[in-house]
Design brief:
Elements (H helix, E strand, L loop, with lengths): L18 E2 L5 E5 L2 H4 L12 H6 L17 H15 L3 E5 L2 H4 L9 H16 L3 E7 L5 H5 L7 H17 L5 E6 L1 H11 L9 H25 L4 E7 L3 E3 L4 H24 L4 H6 L13 H5 L5 E5 L4 E4 L24 E2 L16 H13 L5 E5 L8 E2 L2 E2 L2 H19 L4 E7 L18 E4 L4 E4 L1 H12 L1 E2 L3
Parallel strand pairs: 2-3, 2-14, 3-4, 4-5, 5-6, 6-8, 7-9, 8-11, 11-14
Antiparallel strand pairs: 1-17, 9-10, 12-13, 15-16
The protein binds beta-D-fucopyranose.
Protein name: Beta-glucosidase
Organism: Micromonospora haikouensis
GO molecular function, one term: beta-glucosidase activity
Length: 477
């Protein structure tokens, strides 16, 4: 008899009926420039904050860097062929800012742009819709040296860069994401320091978050003016935040973390204001003096869609007097003003990142954005899981990852059934890659990458996903 106190095993498919997604549902997979391209010095590319950070001792596991990564820069046509074999309808990639505008200001670098022009042409040639993210964390190092995202001017530099990319690719790329996960750029980059540039100042993190959003708004205005037909959006990483108990103190802890993780970005972008409770919580950190008249109007420039990255849920509790708060990532300082909140683990199955697997949280997240914020089309622009993979007889049987996708796609379908205008889903990731501070030690890919030989092996989840796309849904289990 099974032990009811034990959590269910990872990798077991939930039982469920066959489900079909709406016609035209956009099935894709996502990657990011620094995580896969390599070719760090090719064709005039200059360092980004991630080059500097990963080359600094002690910043990444094993001292891993993105110098070579998946060598996608040189293997791009083969990688696109692989995407076509999987039947992807869309591919979400990011443009490396220091590749196309070395140093982060001035003229475009034709050699750098040429790579993305070839990529886009290759995708279109295979009937794959290109989905372009402008900023997936690789700020040109000279802009960081000039103050980075806590400095207001970086927002203007970002809008110039957006214009330059629109001029080169706007005739062929329909879907545009300005920023990927500004929470990570701001609060991991400038708060906890777990991500590049590795700074640790709560007020800087809050300023960075604001200037990232300002850059987003300015970029949307520039893109809209030059490409009125483009579909423009932002990608935010959202978490349901649940109190550990029904005590008022735990409810307040959840409110605070929800404000910092979710509403810090959703409110300015979709409502044109910062939440009052967030500003009160941050009173000891900043007086929000960096917010100028007109900023929130720029930040809330209308969009065509919202991208949501979903991985897990946060369960939090109020601090217990005399007890140290549980460590969260490297330091709790990615929650300025709320560093004493405890992040609680529930003992449910986790991925190799130790992130709890919580498919119902995806339904909650999608429903909340639709109910509380917007009627705009929503896209899951990332969702996936790291697990330890082993190659046996040239195959990788990743049932755990496959089951993660299955349960989250069933959740996505349930959200559609509840009236959420979800229009597409991008698996993270197409292939194993440089997982930021974790280097190459965490594998998120549907395609296995042997980093010595650069051989790609589609895992079981890739073949399964190809079948999901083919039937536009899931078979009964
Ligand atoms: C997201 C990032 C992505 C990848 C996944 C696992 O936060 O956008 O680059 O690292 O997590």
């Amino acid at each position: 008899m099974s032990d009811p106190t034990r959590p269910p095993a990872v990798g077991v498919l939930d039982q469920g009926p066959a489900i079909t997604f709406p016609p035209g549902f956009l099935w894709g997979a996502a990657t990011a420039a620094y995580q896969i391209e390599g070719a760090a010095t090719a064709g005039g590319r200059t360092p980004s904050i991630w080059d500097t950070f990963s080359h600094t001792e002690g910043r990444t596991v094993g001292g891993h860097t993105g110098d070579v990564a998946c060598d996608h820069f040189h293997r791009m046509p083969d990688d696109v062929r692989l995407m076509a074999e999987l039947g992807l309808k869309s591919y979400r990639f990011s443009v490396s800012w220091p590749r196309v505008q070395p140093g982060g200001s001035g003229a475009a670098n034709a050699e750098g742009l040429d790579f993305y022009q070839r990529l886009v042409d290759e995708l279109l040639g295979h009937g794959i819709e290109p989905w372009l993210t402008l900023y997936h964390w690789d700020l040109p190092q000279p802009l960081e040296d000039a103050g980075g995202w806590p400095a207001r001017d970086t927002a203007a530099r970002f809008a110039d860069y957006a214009q330059l990319v629109a001029d080169a690719l706007g005739d062929r790329v329909r879907y545009w994401t300005t920023l990927n996960e500004p929470w990570c750029s701001a609060f991991l980059g400038y708060g906890s320091g777990a991500h590049a540039p590795g700074r640790t100042d709560g007020a800087d993190a809050v300023r960075a978050g604001h200037h990232l959003m300002l850059g987003h708004g300015l970029a949307v205005q520039a893109l809209r003016a030059s490409r009125p037909d483009a579909q423009l959006g932002i990608t935010v990483n959202l978490y349901p935040v649940t109190p550990a108990t029904d005590s008022p103190a735990d409810a307040d802890a959840a409110r605070r973390i929800d404000a910092l993780a979710n509403r810090f970005f959703l409110d300015p972008v979709l409502r044109g204001s910062y939440p009052a409770d967030l500003q009160a919580d941050l009173a000891s950190v900043t007086d929000f003096g960096h917010v100028r008249d007109g900023d929130l109007a720029t930040i809330s420039t209308p969009l065509d869609l919202v991208g949501i990255n979903y991985y897990s849920r946060h369960v939090v509790a109020a601090p217990v007097e005399g007890e140290q708060p549980e460590a969260y990532w490297r330091a709790p300082t990615c929650w300025p003003g709320s560093e004493d909140v405890r992040f609680v683990t529930r003992g449910v199955p986790v991925t190799d990142m130790d992130w709890e697997i919580d498919a119902p949280g995806l339904v909650e997240t999608l429903e909340r954005v639709h109910r509380d914020y917007t009627d705009l089309p929503l896209y899951v622009t990332e969702n996936g899981s790291a697990f330890v993979d082993t190659v046996v007889d040239g195959q990788v049987d990743d049932t755990d990852r496959l089951a993660y996708f299955d349960s989250h796609l069933r959740a996505a379908h349930a959200a559609i059934g509840a009236g959420v205008p979800l229009r597409g889903y991008f698996a993270w990731s197409l292939m194993d890659n440089f997982e930021w501070a974790w280097g190459y030690t965490k594998r998120f890919g549907m395609v296995y990458v042997d980093y010595d030989s650069q051989v790609r092996i589609p895992k079981s989840s890739a073949r399964w996903y190809a079948e999901v796309i083919r039937r536009n849904g899931l078979a009964a289990q």
